[in-house]
Design a protein that fits this description.
The chain is mainly alpha-helical. It contains 3 helices and no strands.
Length: about 70
């Protein structure tokens, strides 16, 4: 399975009129999850989220691709 680089976010049953709207919805939920957390708590939330999503993807080769792309330019 190749790494999905095109917008691929959606909520079942939800109709969107713009491709970026589901991404905006997720970003809003992510910001809300971090609200009122300390820097340390926020880092822990990010680490847990990464591990949960990595487990959901499950394909090590896809995860390695994602790591390489995320590291570009850092």
């Amino acid at each position: 399975m190749p790494l999905q680089l095109q917008p691929n976010l959606a909520e079942p049953g939800q109709r969107y009129f713009r491709d970026f709207t589901p991404g905006d919805d997720f970003y809003e939920a992510l910001i809300e999850a971090h609200r009122e957390l300390s820097d340390e708590q926020s880092e822990m939330l990010n680490a847990k989220l990464i591990l949960l999503l990595a487990n959901q993807v499950g394909d090590i080769s896809v995860l390695k691709q994602a790591l390489a792309i995320a590291r570009e330019g850092v």
